[in-house]
């Protein structure tokens, strides 16, 4: 296999076989597919990425199993002209200093290939009579030198001579000096932010007006950032304190280890669960049993399956959640009558939990499977996010992760299906679908089965038309509902399920919107879900 393609090792040899031939006459690579088991194909997207997809019969769709290049910034011209591509940001592309987004290039719709344009026109030549308006240069650190299609090398004895040569040429936009002088003309493309200490430094030409003193302008933002950073730090400390409170209940000096985790012996857990006699449920990685600690604290003990080859039994001990999972409360044949206030607090609690995972942890955690079954409720119906079996840990220096499709159909973001490397915005999409179900008390899929209009699309359409949103929901749920909260929740849910991940809000913003601290515009009807709804409607009519 190739070291840069770990996906090659994730599929059984019965499905895919690889062969690499390298000799004096030829060098090529072959992959063989067992056609009776798997149908696959390779395709190149307009973005420049090559993707391998396989037909999944159960999903009736093409499912990606790898994509190259994995790094978005490796795609040629991905950000257009005079823009920097940075892998560790959600939007990837940003304009260089002295440039603005060129909106006719569809930046608003998540397509930055139109690039950026200058804020101020360059002065041609360095011998201008108005010396105060001579162009200047600013230092730009980049991973690799820009595309060389529009560059030339000249003889220059020093960096100053190289700079002067660029000023003397009206078409020169940047220079680089390292014993030899390189000049760039026209547009700068394929600029990538450096990773760590590696990289190069080039000098980008800007109009003189871009170098005016900004001391009076920069003081305020620095103060704002300082205040914001302090607030974030306080918030993280508070959240961490809240999360660690339950662990104090099962504190044991003998078994306590660094990090406030508690270690139990198998014999001890077998005793507190009465030999694992009372089963609470089954998860994706094992069965869960009820236990009672000597001090009366209730716990849930999960025995992990598939670990019999190891010498010790692996278990996880959780805080016991007496009201079970959210789906059992709202989707049961005799569902629990939850008021709007309780439903809204559940929705807000889940949003705060995801905000902590995405933005509060040292490393960003993408849950990958947000759904009612993975939201547990305590005695006061306060929610806790559970089942991190599919979660992905993403370092702060890398905000995207490419992985095979995971999660649950009905809550999967479009990027899972297209094979794009995912971000925390995949969880945001799932949260939006979950929020619709919390508000309506019905599964989104149930609207298909009842041959009714797809509920998320129905809500988005009603918002656009300015109709009565409350009328879409069960009258008992809406009986004492706060209409402002209902409106905010509906708008949040519709923004969360937008096709383009860049238009979806972050979970931290969602918390503020739900709490009424931020306002949000009316969302458009998601075209992705409209197509699915129309396709499902056509299929149901055809079947009938």
Question: What would you note in describing this structure?
Answer:
It is a single-pass membrane protein. GO terms for molecular function: ATP binding; protein kinase activity. This is Protein kinase domain-containing protein. It is found in: Membrane. This protein is an alpha+beta fold and 544 residues long. The protein folds into 4 domains: 6-70, no CATH class; 83-212, no CATH class; 228-319, Phosphorylase Kinase, domain 1, CATH 3.30.200; 326-543, Transferase(Phosphotransferase), domain 1 (Orthogonal Bundle). It is 28% helix and 22% strand. The strands form 9 sheets. A 5-stranded antiparallel beta sheet has the order 10-15-12-13-11, with helices on one face. Strands 18-19-20-21 form a 4-stranded antiparallel beta sheet, with helices on one face. A 3-stranded antiparallel beta sheet has the order 3-4-5. Strand 3 and strand 4 form a beta hairpin. Helix 5 runs antiparallel to helix 11 (507-514) and helix 9 (455-465) packs across helix 10. It is globular, with a radius of gyration of 28 Å. The model is unreliable at 126-131, 213-259 and 538-544 (pLDDT under 50).
Shape: globular
Question: Architecture of the largest domain, CATH level 2?
Answer: Orthogonal Bundle
Radius of gyration: 28 Å
Question: Helix tally?
Answer: 12
Helix proportion: 25-40%
Looking at CATH, the homologous superfamily of the largest domain is: Transferase(Phosphotransferase) domain 1
Largest sheet: 5 strands, antiparallel
**Lateral arrangement of strands in the main beta sheet:** 10-15-12-13-11
> Which fold does the CATH topology of the largest domain refer to?
Transferase(Phosphotransferase), domain 1
Number of strands: 25
Question: What is the total domain count?
Answer: 4
Beta-strand residue percentage:
15-25%
Q: State mean pLDDT (0 to 100 scale).
A: 77
> Which regions are unreliable across 5 or more consecutive residues at pLDDT < 50?
126-131, 213-259, 538-544
Return the structural class: alpha+beta
């Amino acid at each position: 296999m190739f070291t840069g393609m770990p996906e090659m090792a994730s599929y059984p040899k019965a499905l895919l076989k690889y062969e690499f031939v390298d000799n004096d006459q030829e060098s090529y690579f072959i992959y063989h597919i067992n056609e009776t088991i798997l149908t696959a194909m390779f395709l190149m997207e307009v973005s420049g990425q090559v993707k391998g997809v396989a037909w999944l019969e159960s999903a009736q769709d093409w499912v990606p199993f790898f994509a190259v290049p994995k790094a978005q910034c490796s795609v040629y011209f991905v950000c257009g002209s005079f823009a920097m591509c940075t892998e560790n940001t959600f939007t990837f592309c940003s304009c260089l200093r002295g440039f603005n987004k060129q909106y006719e290039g569809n930046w608003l719709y998540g397509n930055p290939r139109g690039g950026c344009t200058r804020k101020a026109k360059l002065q041609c030549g360095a011998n201008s009579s108005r010396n105060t308006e001579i162009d200047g240069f600013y230092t730009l650190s980049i991973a690799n030198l820009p595309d060389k299609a529009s560059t030339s090398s000249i003889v220059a004895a020093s960096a100053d001579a190289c700079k002067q040569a660029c000023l003397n040429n009206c078409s020169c936009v940047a220079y680089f000096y390292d014993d030899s002088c390189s000049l760039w003309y026209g547009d700068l493309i394929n600029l990538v932010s450096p990773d760590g200490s590696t990289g190069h430094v080039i000098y980008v030409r800007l109009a003189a007006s871009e170098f005016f003193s900004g001391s009076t302008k920069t003081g305020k933002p620095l103060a704002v950032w300082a205040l914001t950073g302090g607030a974030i730090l306080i918030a993280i400390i508070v959240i961490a304190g809240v999360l660690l409170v339950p662990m104090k209940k099962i504190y044991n000096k003998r078994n306590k280890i660094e990090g406030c985790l508690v270690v139990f012996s198998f014999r001890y857990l077998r005793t507190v669960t009465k030999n694992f006699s009372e089963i609470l449920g089954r998860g994706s990685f094992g069965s869960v049993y009820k236990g009672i600690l000597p001090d009366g604290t209730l716990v849930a003990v999960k025995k992990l399956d598939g670990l019999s080859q190891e010498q010790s039994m692996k278990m996880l001990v959780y805080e016991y959640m007496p009201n079970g999972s959210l789906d059992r409360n709202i989707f049961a044949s005799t569902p629990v009558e939850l008021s709007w206030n309780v439903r809204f607090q559940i929705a807000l609690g889940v949003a705060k939990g995801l905000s902590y995972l995405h933005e509060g942890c040292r490393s960003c955690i993408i849950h990958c499977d947000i759904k009612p079954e993975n939201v547990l409720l305590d005695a006061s119906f306060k929610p806790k996010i559970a089942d991190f079996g599919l979660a992905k840990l993403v370092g702060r220096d890398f905000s995207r992760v490419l992985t095979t499709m995971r999660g649950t159909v009905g809550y999967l973001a479009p990027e899972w299906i297209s094979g794009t490397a995912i971000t925390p915005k995949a969880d945001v999409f799932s949260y939006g679908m979950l929020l619709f179900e919390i508000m309506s008390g019905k599964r989104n899929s149930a609207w298909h089965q009842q041959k009714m209009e797809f509920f998320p699309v129905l809500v988005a359409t009603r918002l656009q038309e300015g109709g009565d949103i409350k009328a879409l929901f069960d009258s008992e749920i809406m009986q004492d509902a706060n209409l402002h909260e209902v409106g905010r929740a509906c708008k949040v849910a519709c923004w969360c399920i937008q096709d383009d991940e860049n238009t979806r809000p972050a979970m931290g913003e969602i918390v503020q919107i739900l709490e009424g601290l931020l306002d949000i515009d009316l969302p458009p009807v998601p075209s992705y879900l409209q197509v699915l709804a129309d396709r499902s409607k056509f299929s149901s009519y055809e079947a009938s």
